[in-house]
């Protein structure tokens, strides 16, 4: 069972940089890079599971004056990430892929261009 974001203060992110001493920088699904604390349950011997490009769920610290901080709530495996991507969301912010805009099909046919006025080089 994959833990999904249900509360208002929870947001998905990808680890960008390990800072040491239990801190990381993570790029959130809203495009903001936040500094996050790694709780003891995710660190210690044989628990170095939070690496760069790891998907995580963070809880925002709304009680702090500096709003760009959070705490790691969940660490996702690759299989859980694939399950999350089936849900609606701005996943392109985390995957690095660009969202492909809708491009209408081009109508085929002939285009005729005519110039009705003379252009004088000195006028330009």
Keywords:
124 residues, mainly beta, OB fold (Dihydrolipoamide Acetyltransferase, E2P), 5-stranded mixed barrel, 2 helices, elongated
List the helices and strands and how they pair.
Blueprint: E1 10-20, E2 23-28, E3 33-37, E4 55-60, E5 69-75, H1 78-84, H2 92-95
Parallel strand pairs: 3-5
Antiparallel strand pairs: 1-2, 1-4, 2-3, 4-5
Task: Describe the protein.
By secondary structure, this protein is mostly beta strands. The protein has a domain at about 10-95: OB fold (Dihydrolipoamide Acetyltransferase, E2P) (Beta Barrel). About 10% of the residues lie in helices and about 30% in strands. The chain contains two helices and five strands; from the N terminus they run E-E-E-E-E-H-H. It has helices at about 80-85, 90-95, and strands at about 10-20, 25-30, 35, 55-60, 70-75. It has a five-stranded mixed beta barrel with strand order 1-2-3-5-4. It is elongated. The relative contact order is 0.19.
Summarize the main sheet: 5 strands, mixed, barrel
Helix content: under 10%
Architecture per CATH nomenclature, i.e. the level-2 architecture of the domain at 10-95: Beta Barrel
The dominant shape is: elongated
Quick description:
With 124 residues, the protein is mostly beta strands. The chain has helices at residues 78-84, 92-95, and strands spanning 10-20, 23-28, 33-37, 55-60, 69-75.
């Amino acid at each position: 069972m994959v833990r999904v974001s249900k509360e208002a203060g929870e947001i998905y992110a990808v680890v960008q940089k390990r800072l040491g001493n239990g801190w990381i920088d993570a790029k959130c699904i809203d495009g903001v890079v936040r500094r996050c604390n790694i709780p003891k349950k995710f660190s210690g011997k044989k628990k170095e599971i939070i690496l760069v490009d790891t998907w995580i769920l963070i809880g925002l610290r709304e009680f702090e004056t500096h709003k760009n901080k959070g705490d790691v709530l969940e660490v996702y495996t690759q299989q859980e990430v694939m399950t999350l991507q089936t849900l609606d969301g701005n996943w392109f912010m985390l995957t690095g892929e660009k969202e492909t805009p809708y491009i209408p099909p081009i109508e085929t046919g002939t285009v005729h261009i005519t110039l009705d006025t003379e252009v004088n080089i000195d006028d330009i």
